[in-house]
Amino acid sequence: MRERTIASHFARAALGGARQRGYDYSNLLQRLGISAELLDEPRARIAPEQFTRLIQGLWLALDDEYLGFGSAPSKPGSFAMMCHAVIHCRNLESALNRGLLFYGLFPGAPRLSLTREDEWVRLSLDDAQLWDPDHFLSESLLLIWHRLGSWMIGQRIRLEQATFSYPRPEHGAEYDLLFSCPLQFKAAQSSLLFHSRYLNMPLLQDERTLKRFLERSPADLLSRPDDGDSLSSQLRRLLSRDRSRWPDLESVATHLHVSPQTLRRHLREEGSSFQELKDQLRRDIAIYHLGRADLSLQQIAEQLGFSEPSAFHRAFKKWTGLTPGAYRAREN
């Protein structure tokens, strides 16, 4: 979904390496229309396009695709060169092994490995040597390799489990959107588990599609939503189809051929609720339009199903900590 937004935490975390190096990124933020006040608000969100450009800008400024979080820098262009090295591989297994071998040539690069566990495959990250207080690089590397693999074979690789070597962070609720699978924290290692059947799948991409892919990746891979198989993901897609009516829980349950009680229970098991999903979607749509100035505040309120603009103002401030007007002023 184009309106999916990024929590301000990830922008603050991405800037951590620049702060550590003493780099003044205020001009970069100003150029991207991201205010420092916006970043300081824990509930605030930014548009995915802004986040992609922020990552790309930091790469160039720091001359490091690891953004200062690795034990050694990775020169900009390393990821692109790795992709060129793997794009002609016969299948996903060959591509992943060659890609991991490529990064293994660089001293100080984070170590990733691919191991078989019966019918499963585990992609593991050794993050012990990283300076990564907010786990930004650990999250990014796992996301990038998962989404790169999915892109290469032309279908989403369904994750069975994601493990992390650290305790559940304060932004842990975002992990459900990032990985869309069962999560385990304080594990022996950070890793992703998926079925081995994907390894034999042929690559469906080529030099032509890779050129377009690299115009925005891997930064774009971090900002792209992972529309997995969870009920929450299904409901978000369902609610986004027809925004003129904003169906209630009962009508959605009928559409899915389950009882409202069953729907509530399944969402509760995923750590969510119907109202929470609905509010997250409305929040993201509001932020999308506030950043473009294509609709008035009243028109946005009407599109989101609010009968009064004042109700939209109250709801938006509850969601983000800012009023719609203040958010639009800081974005433009």
From TrEMBL:
<dbReference type="InterPro" id="IPR020449">
    <property type="entry name" value="Tscrpt_reg_AraC-type_HTH"/>
</dbReference>
<dbReference type="GO" id="GO:0005829">
    <property type="term" value="C:cytosol"/>
</dbReference>
<dbReference type="InterPro" id="IPR018060">
    <property type="entry name" value="HTH_AraC"/>
</dbReference>
<keyword id="KW-0804">Transcription</keyword>
<dbReference type="InterPro" id="IPR032687">
    <property type="entry name" value="AraC-type_N"/>
</dbReference>
<dbReference type="Pfam" id="PF12625">
    <property type="entry name" value="Arabinose_bd"/>
</dbReference>
<dbReference type="GO" id="GO:0000976">
    <property type="term" value="F:transcription cis-regulatory region binding"/>
</dbReference>
<dbReference type="GO" id="GO:0003700">
    <property type="term" value="F:DNA-binding transcription factor activity"/>
</dbReference>
<feature type="domain" description="HTH araC/xylS-type">
    <location>
        <begin position="233"/>
        <end position="330"/>
    </location>
</feature>
<dbReference type="Pfam" id="PF12833">
    <property type="entry name" value="HTH_18"/>
</dbReference>
<keyword id="KW-0238">DNA-binding</keyword>
<protein>
    <submittedName>
        <fullName>AraC family transcriptional regulator</fullName>
    </submittedName>
</protein>
<keyword id="KW-0805">Transcription regulation</keyword>
<dbReference type="InterPro" id="IPR009057">
    <property type="entry name" value="Homeodomain-like_sf"/>
</dbReference>
